[in-house]
Amino acid sequence: MTMASKSDNAGDESAQEADEPVEPTSAVETARRQLSHAADHLDIDPNVVERLKHPKKVHEVTIPVERDDGTVEVFTGYRAQHDSVRGPYKGGLRYHPHVTRDECVGLGMWMTWKCAVMDLPFGGAKGGVAVDPKELSTDEKERLTRRFAQELRDAIGPNRDIPAPDMGTDPQTMAWLMDAYSMQEGETIPGVVTGKPPVVGGSEGREEAPGRSVAIITQLVCEYYDRPLAETTVAVQGYGSVGANAARLLDDWGATVVAISDVNGAMYDPAGIDTASVPSHDEEPEAVTTYADTVITNDELLTLDVDVLVPAALGNVITEANADAIAADLVIEGANGPTTAAADSILAARDVAVIPDILANAGGVTVSYFEWLQDINRRSWSLERVNDELETEMRAAWRAVRTEFEARDVTWRDAAYIVALTRIAEAHESRGLWP
Ligand SMILES: NC(=O)C1=CN([C@@H]2O[C@H](COP(=O)(O)OP(=O)(O)OC[C@H]3O[C@@H](n4cnc5c(N)ncnc54)[C@H](OP(=O)(O)O)[C@@H]3O)[C@@H](O)[C@H]2O)C=CC1
Ligand SMILES: O=C(O)CCC(=O)C(=O)O
């Protein structure tokens, strides 16, 4: 059995059409190319596909923030709402200097597919602020977040659009957002955001959930390819909410994690890293390189000779330029959009299995759904229940994707898109094109 497809045709299947540009430059272009590619495998109304190439609405706001020295700096924030045919918009908020309108649209599209792969009653959205959160004090971050919440007050709501954490934001950010929105509405509305601290309506297990789903999917994929975890080496790029939790669980479950990284570079130990002893980004930013004996670059991490590569930081890190040098047999996408469309084709032709973000990291939004249910019903689930239900949902999504992968002789990404697009297209056909 080959890794990228049950047949050796996967490279041809995912080869790009000659008139397509060589390397897309933005998340939205990558997302659109992935959509077109997957739609080719389906008998799906082309009008629905055309609709899905565009966001329903993009909110762009300016956010004046008083710095601690009394000066005012104005930041730009976005909320891209892609599709809501299956339910309210859902997706994270990112604080990062590279946030743009187009990045939010692409990330919002991926949220639509992710919620549909998981069969959650949500559509897709993503937002963010173009800011380096490391350059803000805690007070400045709070002022930025409260003002952003105020500017988005008509766009979000528990039945309209429900933000959550993403890169650069955390449970505290979500608590400020929930509080600012609730103050404007005059009542406490915990269901307006997810990923909050449990003390204000957050769910147990939410912070760990995207990393947990990466670990669960890695385990299932390794089983599928008859590769015991105890004989599997793993490199993880990024050591935050996704990367650190995935690395620690895989380490606990018997895999050997040989490399982890932060923004400055990677810690590398071929004998295996004791992941519990290295602080995650949330515990101490940039700790990985601070505590490393051997530091290699983030680019070197990507091409290490390991069995499993988990990119879990930024998008667009596996590109046409390095896809030929990826030595892992399995790439499990912890980050959103780490692989460009051109790199995808190269990896498929090389028989490297790429398990897409919309399946692998979907534990975050799945536990966000559990959190939303808990908030609406004013109930609180135990950590054990959350983790059990997450595992059940991840296994169900994995089975649905595996069924398409085996039946249609496509890549894992196309198989996941086929599951998602089929559900979304049926909903559009049933409701009409206008929701
Ligand atoms: N949080 C969530 O719920 C979900 C997040 N995702 C996706 O996962 C990815 C990571 O998000 P998340 O874990 O939340 O982010 P965090 O902010 O928690 O952590 C990000 C990690 O990436 C590192 N990093 C930052 N820049 C670079 C770089 N240029 N090269 C290598 N490492 C870098 C950071 O290092 P340092 O400590 O030095 O800053 C940190 O370890 C994103 O693509 C996000 O969209 C997907 C699903 C859910
Ligand atoms: O939990 C959520 O609502 C969304 C998390 C997220 O942004 C993602 O999965 O990329």
Automatic annotation (TrEMBL):
PROSITE patterns: GLFV_DEHYDROGENASE (PS00074). Residues 1-31 are annotated as: Disordered. One of its GO terms (biological process) is L-glutamate catabolic process. The active site is at K126 (proton donor). Residues 203-432 form the Glutamate/phenylalanine/leucine/valine/L-tryptophan dehydrogenase C-terminal domain. The keyword GTP-binding does not apply. It holds the Pfam family ELFV_dehydrog_N. Transmembrane segments: none annotated. Coiled coil: none annotated. InterPro entries: Aminoacid_DH-like_N_sf, Glu/Leu/Phe/Val/Trp_DH, Glu/Leu/Phe/Val/Trp_DH_C, Glu/Leu/Phe/Val/Trp_DH_dimer, Glu/Leu/Phe/Val_DH_AS, Glu_DH, GluDhGdhB, NAD(P)-bd_dom_sf. GO terms for molecular function: glutamate dehydrogenase (NAD+) activity. Residues 10-22 have a biased composition (Acidic residues). Homohexamer. Belongs to the Glu/Leu/Phe/Val dehydrogenases family. This is Glutamate dehydrogenase. It comes from Halorubrum distributum JCM 9100.
